[in-house]
């Protein structure tokens, strides 16, 4: 999933999701709140369009219990606005079988706003 997001490949991200999947993003950013599959596609392609190259995610920890996988990861990217973006994330993935049904994303939203949206 993270490799597909890094590449800005919305189709590959969507292929890993259930038909009714949602992705929730913390905070009050333009991308915050719940997104259905169409919104997830827009989020992936929109963020990829801001980047001057690939967005790199480096997972630093995983916890799995039942149908949930929690991933701690760090990101790095050079942006078209000339800024360098880096942040830390906690992503919670909920599965139905081998597909993701829900994602919850926690990150430093102030940092996201200042570097990507200000």
UniProtKB/TrEMBL annotation:
Lineage: Bacteria, Bacillati, Actinomycetota, Actinomycetes, Pseudonocardiales
Residue ranges of domain SnoaL-like in the record: 2-102
Bilayer-spanning residue ranges: none
Identification of the protein by name: Nuclear transport factor 2 family protein
PANTHER family the UniProt entry points to: BLR2505 PROTEIN
Pfam family, one: SnoaL_2
InterPro entries: NTF2-like_dom_sf (IPR032710), SnoaL-like (IPR037401)
